[in-house]
Amino acid sequence: MTFAHDIPVTWLAVPLIASSHYLLFRTYQKHNPVNYSFHTFFLLGTSILLIPQLYVMVPLYFWYMAVFMRCLSWRAFWAGLIGLTLPAWFLAGWCAFAGDFGNIQDVLQTITNPHLVNPDNYTQYLSFRNIQTLTWLFVTFVSFVATVHYLHTYYNDKIRTRMYLYVYVMQIAAVWLLLLWQPDLYNQLMPLLMLCSCTIIAHFFALTGSIVSNTFFVLSVLALGVLTSINMGLWKL
Known about the structure:
Blueprint: H1 13-25, H2 34-50, H3 57-68, H4 74-98, H5 102-112, H6 131-153, H7 159-181, H8 186-206, H9 211-231
């Protein structure tokens, strides 16, 4: 996806969310994971400042801690809220120092005002000769196959691994729906979709060895090579 590699500041949301996943998983069955909860939501709150639409993940993270990680307590809950809002307080302090509250107002306006679907934003993605559409379809299809396989064979994994992969399945669904809701944020959200998909896809390819899955792997690698060559400008659609 060379078209998404212009390294804008929103790119930082990818390592931030990846790091929040790591710290979230460290809370698994912890009796009182206050420190991990604080830092997990601090990273999530920082990513929300970069891409305000990611605020939809806040209730999901609390759900992950309560249901999958089995560690949510009142102290962890409030630590998460403090960590979530702390980046906004840092930004407010900087805005007060600079005398310009435009940045924080933009973030708050995005969060408080529902985004209305604009049909014009979908126009460029309705053609299969569009590389963005093909890339989205490729990642969606492979991750969907991997998810279906996992949901049918989850009993082969340890409970802890199972809980981790459940988080990734829900993250894939959340980012995919967010991308469908706001296609104008394609370059910001598509890397996040790939981040959430790569683990479940790797799990699928690593733990299957049938003729069908091996053939699917070869075809996926070939399709990936074709998409990469198009994205690098070696040939055009």
